[in-house]
Amino acid sequence: ADGARVPVVVIGTGYGGSVAALRLAQAGVDVHMIEMGMAWDTPGSDGKIFCNTTAPDYRSYWLRTKTKQPLSNFLGFPIDRNIPRYTGILDAEEFGGITVYQGRGVGGGSLVNGGMAVTPRRENFGAVLPSVNADEMYDVYYPRANAGLGVGTVDPAWFDTAACYQYARVGRKHAQRSGFPFVFVPDVYDWDYMAREAAGSVTKSALAGEILYGNNHGKKSLQQTYLARAKATGRVSISPLHRVTSVSPAGGGGYTVVMEQIDTGGGVTATKSVTADRVFFAAGSVGTSKLLVKLKATGALPNLNAEVGKGWGDNGNVMCGRANHMWDPTGPLQSSIPCAGIDNWAAGGAFAEVAPLPTGIETYASFYLSITRNPNRARFSWNAAASRVELDWQTSWKQPSIAMAKTIFDKINVKEGTIYRTDLFGGYKIWGDHLTYHPLGGAVLNKATDDLGRLHGHPGLYVIDGALIPGNTSVNPFVTITALAERNIEKIIAAGL
Ligand code: FAD
């Protein structure tokens, strides 16, 4: 309630925030979580909570009047459509040189993402989080995160026969014919449920093209895992449709947290404040960075150090499609949950996921999301005149990512006698180099914070989300974000908060 005093406020309900809330509550601490997006627990007039990728409606995008689909075109035609402005689930946040996709709602990115739950190869960990003890991570915190998230892997025997993974088997065949290591990619989707979808005995989700705007079934988002357990403690409350705008030292100790309550059209209906002894920033890499950069620049948190806002990367995301021959159809039915990858990290700096194109028709296309070792890092800064935080990423900074992805796909194209698709991004573009799904950094561990995520200069303030990770995880990031949060909160609680 407005004016209340609480022990802990957690800003954001994604991976970092959910881990913090659960572990603090289990330690006997009352936690209040503040989330700018909706609760996503109530069906719409069609009986469904989430809308489908084939028919994005008001629920799809965060406060936009037109969809901004990652694949903007198909067979050369633009596919974006007008929608009512609404606090929808997926934010396509535009900065100068990049569009950053993020989940909005209770559960954060877990609501919209593909659920690919990948632990980095151990030999790559030193470059991911240089100050963190790898033994502890691989012995304790990665296993804890994988268990807490409900990670599993497709049954290889089922994979070999399932119609919905023909596209992935084509991806495997092409990878192996060019000599690249093929790997199964674990996921938090319930694989037994998917097998029953294929058998026709349950309501389809992955096999009905659901992903990106939420899955009505099958996917274990944070709502089903960490947040369910956190709520069951009785110590965690959540305020959806509340956006934190300020955190500053309070007169009698602790911090004043100011927030705006918004309606589903994005209008501000109330401004409230609470006082918290401790505040965890878990608003995601972009959300946390934007808040901290603004609060430092405007004098609300003057003692934050000069590292705040620095070290932001896109996890080297780049997309592309390849046109297959008629004898390599990828199938009209494609599971929206990817389960296959091509690992050329060591030799070429790229890990490519074989992604679906769930259009319902045969496309003869193979589609890939590559994670690459892109070295470029951007910085958030406060534009006082415009009262806004900006990011200095340049579109041309994706060139290293394209070169790394080409180490895989140029070779496959030569071997198969095939070419890249030019109809997926508009303007005959081959490379989807305008976006990222994996924002990381902006309040880097051991730089903007100490080695546990405690912000320098303001005791009682913590960062516990993707902002801690310096720009790249070599694979999809949420298992690493979760494992790091598990590590940090355990040590923070042990140190007496
Ligand atoms: P988030 O999960 O982003 O949570 C932050 C939360 O804070 C959000 O709910 C946000 O609404 C809220 N918030 C922000 N600002 C404020 C504020 N001022 N006040 C109140 N609340 C606020 N990763 C994988 O590992 N595997 C995948 O398969 C995968 N696929 C993806 C697909 C898509 C389309 C997208 C967008 C992302 C995908 N990701 C994937 C990335 C993954 O979802 C993110 O890395 C992860 O969610 C980040 O976790 P986080 O805890 O840092 O923050």
Automatic annotation (TrEMBL):
Its EC number is 1.1.3.6, 5.3.3.1. Keywords: Cholesterol metabolism, FAD, Flavoprotein, Isomerase, Lipid metabolism, Oxidoreductase, Steroid metabolism, Sterol metabolism. Its cofactor is FAD. Coiled coil: none annotated. Gene3D superfamilies: Cholesterol Oxidase, domain 2, FAD/NAD(P)-binding domain. Pfam families: GMC_oxred_C (PF05199), GMC_oxred_C_1st (PF22500). The keyword Metal-binding does not apply. InterPro entries: Cholesterol_Oxidase, FAD/NAD-bd_sf, GMC_OxRtase_C. It comes from the Bacteria. Residues 436-485 form the Glucose-methanol-choline oxidoreductase C-terminal domain. Pathway: Steroid metabolism; cholesterol degradation. PANTHER family: CHOLESTEROL OXIDASE, FAD-DEPENDENT OXIDOREDUCTASE 2 FAD BINDING DOMAIN-CONTAINING PROTEIN. Belongs to the GMC oxidoreductase family. This is Cholesterol oxidase. It comes from Actinomadura fulvescens.
